[in-house]
Automatic annotation (TrEMBL):
The keyword Transcription regulation applies. Coiled coil: none annotated. Signal peptide: none annotated. PANTHER family: HTH-TYPE TRANSCRIPTIONAL REGULATOR RUTR, HTH-TYPE TRANSCRIPTIONAL REGULATOR RV1816. It comes from Streptomyces wedmorensis. This is TetR/AcrR family transcriptional regulator. Keywords: DNA-binding, Transcription, Transcription regulation. Gene3D superfamilies: Tetracycline Repressor, domain 2.
Amino acid sequence: MTTVRGARARARIEITAAIKDEARTQLAAEGAAKLSLRAVARELGMVSSALYRYFPSRDDLLTALIVDAYDAVGAAAEQAAADTAAQRPLARWTAVCRAVRAWAVAHPHEYALIYGSPVPGYTAPQDTIAPAARVGLVLIDITRRAHDGEGVALPPLPDDLRPEAERIAADIAPDLPPALAVALVAAWSQLFGLVSFEVFGQFHRVVEDRDTFFATAARRLGQDVGLLPRV
């Protein structure tokens, strides 16, 4: 009986993966708004009722794809941080940013699913929150280690921004100064702005050497947060 249950579990994993793969193919061809469970089932040679046992609705399938995408870019960021653990904070920050960009360029349709236009009629559930935070948490951790270690150059904090800065710090990094928390949120948003400009074509005929441009911009973001360029 255990063997039968194991075989069924493996089959479910394989079919779930096949459904997601076909859905990603549809995302690339038609976009998220046109994703259809019936079309996925048809391409896989399944009846719709069988597919519904794996994903009861289009939104359930979209959520699975969104979580996978966030987890993939988060894993890329975490791996870059681990690979550069012996390096100084600014170098680690830049490596993480470059890993995020590399994943996005290699997976533009999955990137568009999580950082492009909202899908009409879809509201992301709580399940997506933790995966979506993975890249940000890596950047926070690098900054925290720098703050506790070699130190950081605290960015200026205007008086009128202090209440909001204190609220942000309480939410994302209560152990860090509010000025750092604000700088981290600004850098996080600018990182994905840079990536989005490249993935969605806004750099066309503007930036040619995109590797060097991005590395320089990412390093500058780290310095804006307060990471020191040298000891």
